[in-house]
Amino acid sequence: MEKAESTVASDMREHLRLLRERGVDPYPRTFDRTHLSSQLVDLFEELEGEEVTVAGRLMAVRGHGKAGFADLHDSDGRVQVYVRKDEVGDDAFELWKLVDVGDIVGVRGEVMKTRTGEVSVKARELTVLAKALLPLPEKWHGLKDQEQRYRQRYLDIVANADSREVFRKRSRILSVAREFLEERGFIEVETPVLQPVYGGAFARPFVTHHHSLGLDLYLRIADELYLKRLIVGGFERVFEIGKDFRNEGMDRTHSPEFTQLELYQAYADYNDMMALTEELVGRMADEICGGRVISWQGREFDLTPPWRRLRVADAVKGAIGVDAGSDLETLKAAALASGVELPEPLSRGRLIEEVLDSLVEPGLMEPTFLIDYPLEVSPLAKGTPDDPDTVERFEVFIAGLELGNSFSELNDPDEQRSRFEYQVEQREDGDAEAHGMDDDFLRALEHGMPPTGGLGIGLDRLVMLLTDRRNIRDVILFPPMRPEG
Q1: Rounded to whole angstroms, how far apart are CA atoms 163 and 154?
Q2: Taking phi first (over 0 means left), then psi (-120 to 50 degrees means alpha), and beta for anything else, what does residue 102 get?
Q3: Tens of pLDDT along 410-431?
Q4: Which of 76, 100, 338, 477 is most buried, by CB atoms within 10 Å?
């Protein structure tokens, strides 16, 4: 029967005391490691019989008497350590008896293979590098409690190889995004996280206070308005990868703190952004999944261009059976009859958004651009040439996940001011997510912004898709959680 956690922790504390009693520093300042575990395997023919030093966390200890084996894990994998009393000497072997699973140790020794053919290090010298004082979770290799995994991500990474791999892939996805855009002449920039006026999306912000300036500031909900200022300034292709914050609900696809890629390209429109999206996501799939056909939650999706284009008006009519251009009462009756819960205050644009959210978007499984949105819910987008109430905007969906949002950017300063004024009226009527007035952004537009295409992609959801994860918290290292207790 396994020892209770408190008993194991007590034993580990006692081992710490005994180490210090022997004059051993259990937390030394540095260690000279020569090789990672993977290098011992890859370069075995070259290293066999050579002396190396390795370091990592002890994840298993086997054997009794005068010899034993241990599994040492580092950032690249696992290597077996073989310890014999007559090889390391009495003092080192006594030290070996005081190390526990979970301790971080260094080993100097000779590269060898055991009789079973496993690459190992025959220890000559042992060094305790960090004495653990709490045991790893029982059956560490099977840490399954989801809340514990999110709260104590360090244990999840220690215990679960698949979690480590998800976050390695996440890092690579961000690198691919940067490489892809830099190859196309984009430059990476940084814009303020604390903003005096929030905008660029419909969302409720987080509010903080700057004591020195004596004013309230907002955590940004989007990067858009600052990035477009840079287009005005002459940077024709810019992007930013950073955190955005929206003071909204949490579920399996929403986090109040999330990572967004936003980019803007002068002399482009939303058609160019569709092509860029197909290329960018396809490049990521090639790197992470080995090709354009990916698997997510047991279903395959082909990311080969061109992706489907579906007009919002056609999607709405298909969902509730009436034309999206019908009067508000007709739309309202059809939506209610279809089981859609309608927001207050209600407008045509908000109603259409609710129909899309409830009835259309969850069924957009194959890669799809949902295009041409109502103007009143898209105050930063340029109108379509044939319909003054519709704008050149798309949202992109794969597997029912909304991955991105794009506009042909509005660059008429007078029209933009009029749109903002309407949004301010909506806010005064009780719409807490309506856009505010940003006079400095309008001033920038008055200096002239070229025709521009903009795109925002939620990288957390894209990581979910490319790593076959259903919950956004599985791809965020430290997701927001309620305090324990």
Answers
A1: 10
A2: left
A3: 999 999 999 999 888 887 777 7
A4: 100
The span from the CA of 450 to the CA of 387, in Å, is: 22
Structure tokens at 245: 């914050």
Rounded Cα distance between 336 and 326, Å, is 15
> Tell me, what DSSP letter sits at residue 251?
B
d(CA 259, CA 205): 16
Hey, is 323 helix, strand or coil?
A: coil
* Residue 1 confidence (pLDDT): 37
The CATH 3.30.930.10 domain(s) of the chain lie at 158-307+366-474
Q: CA geometry: angle at 122 spanning 118 and 123, to 5°?
A: 140
Beta bridge partners of 387: 384
**How far is residue 302 from each of residues 64, 215, 456, 484, measured CA to CA in Å?**
54, 50, 22, 42
Residues 6+ apart with CB under 8 A from 380: 200, 224, 407, 409, 410, 416, 419, 435
In 3D space, the residue among 369, 161, 179 whose CA is nearest the CA of residue 287 turns out to be: 179
Place of tokens 């967004």: 260
- What confidence tens digit (pLDDT) does each residue in 218-275 have? 999 999 999 999 999 999 999 999 999 999 989 999 999 999 999 999 999 999 999 9
H helix runs in 28-80, sequence order: 37-42, 44-47
The predicted model scores a pTM of: 0.92
Q: And the tokens for 77?
A: 């994998």
How long is the chain?
485
Q: Which ranges of 209-269 does DSSP label H, i.e. alpha helix?
A: 224-233
CA 91 to mean position of chain CA atoms: 48
153: left (phi over 0), alpha (psi -120 to 50) or beta: alpha
Tokens 């979970």 locate to 102
Which residue blocks in 124-250 are alpha helix, DSSP H?
146-151, 153-159, 161-183, 224-233
Q: Which CATH number describes the domain made up of 5-136?
A: 2.40.50.140
Per-position b or e across 82-110, b if 16+ CB within 10 A of its CB: bbeeebbeeebbebbebbbbbbbbbbbbb
Q: Which amino acid is at 1?
A: M
C-alpha neighbours within 13 Å on the C-beta side of residue 293: 3
Distance of alpha carbon 350 from alpha carbon 205, whole angstroms: 19
Mean pLDDT on 47-61: 96
CA distances (Å), origin 246, targets 202, 227, 306, 424, 444: 9, 19, 32, 19, 25
- When the candidates are 2.30.110.10, 3.40.50.2300, 3.90.1150.10, 3.30.930.10, the CATH number that belongs to 158-307+366-474 is 3.30.930.10
